[in-house]
Design brief:
The protein has 545 residues and is of the alpha/beta class. The chain is built from 16 helices and 27 strands.
Length: 545
């Protein structure tokens, strides 16, 4: 009875907070000037602690970020980049990523963060679709850009972040030198909360990637993700392991924590379980956010000798988190991982909030300021326990403006007054949401969203392949992996060598994380009477059904 009373008390607190919440987005808003510059008034306030793979560190205060982002805004203006024009930001986990992004927002240009895993053809698509006029890249990505320069006619300026001792190669402008040449002081253009600010490209499912267009109000709204879900405080240090090309970085590497004046920890290296645990001890963040794949592997380590005295909150998002992982982490650390659900198209929509009882396997409760429901095909709210489409009513400021330059896709995700997320879910009597599956065929593997169309297109480019279908197959560590069913051309012999060749081919023509880890050769693919591949049947087969 005590547990039930505690649950009811917590639910009542959530209801009161939900009912009392009111959006207070200022009409004129710019994250750089109204957030970063405000905290920069304290010259000692820490903004970023960066750690390199060799143990080297860089520390930036908000004042230093203010000055550097002002120079970035001035640089873009000096290059003639006009308000609303697009700039691709192709930078890894480096302080220059935050500086470039905040500077672009101050300049009033359209910032497009890009994953450093993108292949040349992915960059061409984004540059051509957006009409980008500038690219800001790291030295490691320069070759990919150079390989397709002639295919990106709108790009006029190529800015390279490189080692100061190396200098920029021909055709590139050295970013550090260009920034140093700008006059210090406030720079940029005024922006309104309703003005376009950011574009994130999704994984294509049945066609090319969609461009998710966000306004400056989205950068404001992320403070509620940090405060309400992350449980972050202004004097905290936060570590979120997200890649800079994904919207999760907007949630928890930049806009969310800096809105509260919190310090961000950023590690440049790849995920290694033991190394990540070392860093949790050494960097001592109060809040830690990682995808389920990382937590699945972390709990397989020997945690008995680990101590994280500063750690207060652990959260996860990107795919459903296994209940057994939550239990294992809690048994080892005493901390409960709180799951959350958001999209590239939104801030966090549903989450297990601090102080709320966690129901392992549940996405949690709706975020204040969002009317989230499970609806049927006619837009009616489903009864508790009934499977339907997860949807958000209206147009809260954390929701995207549209699929840029794609009116049809923008219309398809609307059902009357509802934005339909594309995910299927149920809701229980207490308001907890439970993920059921994708309404479309997106594969979520290790936190990455992978469109089957991209994998299948890459496979079909191989001369041995006639047809291919990609689906999700269960995996204990990654949640799911990409499994490909392949029909070969007559006379081609299947075998392990061909499997390796197809995997290498996919890695070469698309982002490496999208390659099929499992390939099965079949005589034919199951299809509907209209000739469409029945991926639902293949998913059942991959799951052993």
């Amino acid at each position: 009875m005590a547990d039930e009373a505690g649950l009811e008390e917590a639910l009542e607190r959530h209801r009161r907070a939900r009912d009392a919440f009111r959006w207070e987005v200022p009409d004129a808003f710019n994250f750089g000037r109204d957030v970063v510059d405000r905290f920069a008034c304290d010259p000692e306030r820490p903004a970023l602690l960066w750690r390199g793979t060799a143990g080297d560190e860089r520390r930036l205060s908000f004042a230093e970020v203010r000055d550097a982002s002002d120079r970035m805004a001035a640089l873009l203006a000096s290059l003639g980049v006009a308000a609303g024009e697009a700039v691709l930001i192709l930078l890894p986990k480096l302080p220059e990523w935050q500086i470039a992004l905040v500077g672009a927002l101050k300049a009033g240009v359209l910032a497009i963060p890009c994953s450093t895993l993108l292949r040349p053809k992915d960059l061409v698509y984004r540059a051509v679709h957006s009409g980008a006029v500038a690219i800001v890249a790291d030295a490691a990505q320069a070759a990919s850009v150079d390989a397709v320069r002639s295919e990106m006619p709108s790009v006029r300026h190529f800015l390279l972040r490189t080692d100061p001792s190396a200098g920029a190669p021909g055709g590139w402008t050295d970013l550090a030198s260009a920034l140093a040449a700008q006059a210090p002081g406030a720079a940029g253009r005024p922006t309104r909360a309703s003005d376009p600010a950011l574009v994130y490209y999704t994984s294509g499912t049945t066609g090319p990637p969609k461009a998710v267009l966000h306004a400056h109000g989205y950068t404001f709204a992320q403070r509620y993700t940090a405060e309400v879900w992350l449980g972050l405080r202004g004097d905290d240090r936060l570590w979120t392991t997200s890649d800079t090309g994904w919207a999760k970085a907007a949630y928890s590497v930049l806009f969310g924590p800096w809105s509260l004046g919190a310090e961000v920890f950023q590690y440049a290296g790849r995920f290694e379980p033991a190394r990540e645990l070392d860093l949790l001890e050494q960097a001592a963040p109060a809040v830690f956010c990682a995808p389920p794949t990382e937590f699945r592997l972390l709990v397989k380590e020997d945690l008995s000798q680990r101590r994280f005295p500063a750690l207060r909150e652990c959260v996860s998002a990107g795919e459903p988190l296994n209940p057994e992982v939550i239990r294992a982490w809690r048994d080892a650390t005493g901390l409960t991982i709180r799951d959350g659900y958001g999209q590239t198209e939104s801030i966090l929509l549903v989450g297990n909030h601090p102080g709320m009882p966690v129901r392992p396997g549940s996405m949690g409760l709706a975020m204040p300021g969002h009317e989230v429901e499970v609806i049927d095909a006619d837009g009616r709210v489903c009864a508790a326990g009934e499977v339907g489409d997860l949807a958000v009513r209206g147009q809260p400021p954390g929701l995207f403006l549209e699929y840029w330059k794609d009116a049809d896709a923008s219309a398809r995700c609307r059902r009357g007054e509802w934005y339909v997320t594309g995910d299927r879910a149920t809701r229980d009597e207490d308001g907890y949401f439970w993920f059921v599956g994708r309404a479309d065929d997106v594969i979520i593997s290790a936190g990455y969203r992978i469109g089957p169309f991209e994998v299948e297109s890459a496979l079909l480019e191989h001369p041995a392949v006639v047809e291919a279908a990609a689906v999700a197959a269960p995996d204990p560590d990654r949640g799911s992996i990409v499994k490909a069913y392949v029909v070969l051309r007559p006379g081609v012999e299947p075998g392990p060598a061909l499997v390796s060749a197809l995997q290498s081919h996919v890695k070469a023509v698309t982002a490496p994380y999208k390659y099929p880890r499992d390939v099965e050769f079949v005589d034919a693919l199951p299809k509907t009477v209209s000739g469409k591949i029945r991926r639902v049947e293949l998913r059942g087969r991959a799951a052993g059904g």
